[in-house]
Amino acid sequence: MRSVFAMRSVLVVLWICLTPLTAAAEGRVALLIGNGGYARDELALRNPANDVAALDAALARLGFDVRRETDLTREEMQEALTWFRGAAEGAEIAMIFYAGHAVQVGAENYLIGTELTEVSGPALTEASLTLSELIGATEGLGAGLSLIVLDACRDNPFGPAGLGRPGLAPVSGGAGTLVAYATDPGNVAADGAGENSPFTAALLQHIETPGLDVRLMFGRVRQDVVRRSGGAQVPWVEEAVLGEYAFAPAADRRDPDDEFARWRRAVGAHSVESYRGYLDDYPEGIYAIVARLRIDSLEGNAEEAEIAAADLPQATAALELAGYLVPSVGYPPDTQVKQAFAAWQNAQPAGARGFAALMGEGARKAAFVGTYTAGILRNDLQRFASVEESLRTAEENLSEAEAEFADDTGAQQTLATMRRQVAQIAAIKEGVAADLDASRTYYHDLLVLTNRYLSEYMEIEFQPRFASSRGITRLSDRAMSDAQTFYAHLGLVGDAPDGSYAWLTAFLEGNE
Fold first, then answer.
1. Of 299, 311, 477, 454, nearest to 369 (Cα)?
2. What is the DSSP letter of 301?
3. HEC secondary structure over 56-73
4. What is the reported pLDDT for 497?
5. N or C: which end of the chain has fewer CB within 10 A?
6. Distances from the Cα of 396 to the Cα of 55, 215, 408, 485, angstroms
7. What is the pLDDT of residue 461?
8. H/E element, 279
9. Which string of b and e fits 338-359 if b means at least 16 CB within 10 Å?
10. Quick one: which H or E segment has residue 177?
């Protein structure tokens, strides 16, 4: 039963300035633009300047020739693109990063300059660069990898005027080009309450990891942003990257005995400095998670680092739903659960790393997955009912035709065709039935798991609401209905004997 609950928040996207894994860190050029100080006060953004400053520092450490600009007009952005084309010609990596306001009008995306004073179509055109212009600036450079990164989907300032749509439209470049967005097409991203936007903050966390391939880094950043936003923001990428690339070269392989000896010295000193020294030498070492947790503990930021034996089953369920444990038949060893808990703690902000916080996240994931799965199951039930009715009708028609034309030689070809069609529908029914079996079993196991281990942490606030804020009324209504269905079924499971499928009876009655 426990083999169906690895649900990682998914997917992605960010910007990458990378180099082939076998190449030296040479010929790297980046143009960073952060627009936050707009002429219209209501458009002001706090983080674009912080974002480009932090990326400037990181890229400089990675060997990039960086030009960082803030609060540019359209004319100034055009001048910066002219510099970029000259500096990036023949480069190994050529990258443009833009943080600020942008809006989608028609099929084009407009990156808004700070001189905008009037909310109108002509003013937008006069004060903005288009994404097409950015892509054009990377074409013909002969660069090994061209990157355009847009942390620019914060909102649509033209919405009240009825101009444009929220978010940006997906656009891709040619071979060797990657275009990355802070969130998925048509949606908005957060500027963030911290020093950096959630998108840039996640990128900064992984950008200097030695030897990390772009595809793996995409997954890590995507997971961070999705988890931190509760699924409301999902980075997006359009790419035609050729080859394998990494931001930082792979670290030299060291003798495991050397790392163990270094770790023992850190433990012997048991100080913030000793553990940070270990992390400097082995940032991805086998004791890295423990080192970070001990630093937190010494600095007074840690919460309970251990799970009580009685709480291990509950923690296992939450860690599986959060993606930190791979589900298996039966329960994993206690040590494996505690290691997964330590990994989860390491990814959480200070003040939210205890057992109660873990269970809260597990409950939120259960509500999200339950809502999603209820929708799938409803669809599978409707598909099965539809194909079953089609098969019944086809079989009745065939039976009548065979009874009436069995001795008619001229009708035999038609009868043979009808038999093949009935067989095809029957095969389709078997496939739909298999899908229904899988979704029904998954949903039942999720209900049982949630009721047994997470029900006391479930809250009605976990039901989805964000779709309506984006103007997707039908999706919002359907998601809310599916969430309410999941909560109702949880109640049925809690009241029914073990093994009961009372929830399925209620579901079938609701689909009639």
1. 454
2. -
3. HHHHHHCCEEEEEEECCC
4. 66
5. C
6. 69, 53, 19, 36
7. 53
8. helix 272-281
9. ebbbbebbebbeeeebbbebbb
10. strand 177-181
Other C-beta atoms closer than 10 Å to the C-beta of 308 total 10
Contacts of 301 (CB under 8 A, 6+ apart): 350, 351
Phi-psi group of 110: left, alpha or beta (phi > 0 → left; psi -120 to 50 → alpha; rest → beta): beta
Radius of gyration of the chain (CA): 28
**Angle subtended by helix axes 473-495 and 355-405, to nearest 10:** 100
Mean pLDDT of 360-367: 86
Cβ atoms of 190 and 197 within 8 Å: the answer is yes
For residues 41-65, one letter each, b for 16 or more C-beta atoms within 10 angstroms of the residue's C-beta and e for the rest, the string is eebebbbbbbbbbbbbebbeebbbe
Sign of CA dihedral 84, 87, 88, 94: negative
Length of the chain: 512
Q: What whole-number distance in Å separates Cα of residue 379 and Cα of residue 399?
A: 30
pLDDT over 90 percentage in the chain = 19
Q: Which two tokens stand for residue 184?
A: 């998925």
Give the per-residue pLDDT at 333. Answer: 84
Residue 304 has pLDDT above 80, yes or no: no
Q: Is the pLDDT of residue 122 over 60?
A: yes
Mean pLDDT of 350-364: 82
Query: Which range in 107-111, 327-331, 396-400 is most confidently predicted, on average pLDDT?
Result: 396-400
Per-residue pLDDT at 223 exceeds 90: no
SS3 assignment, position 21: coil
Q: Which amino acid is at 101?
A: H
Is the predicted pLDDT of residue 366 greater than 50, yes or no? yes
Q: 66 φ, ψ to 5°?
A: -115, 135
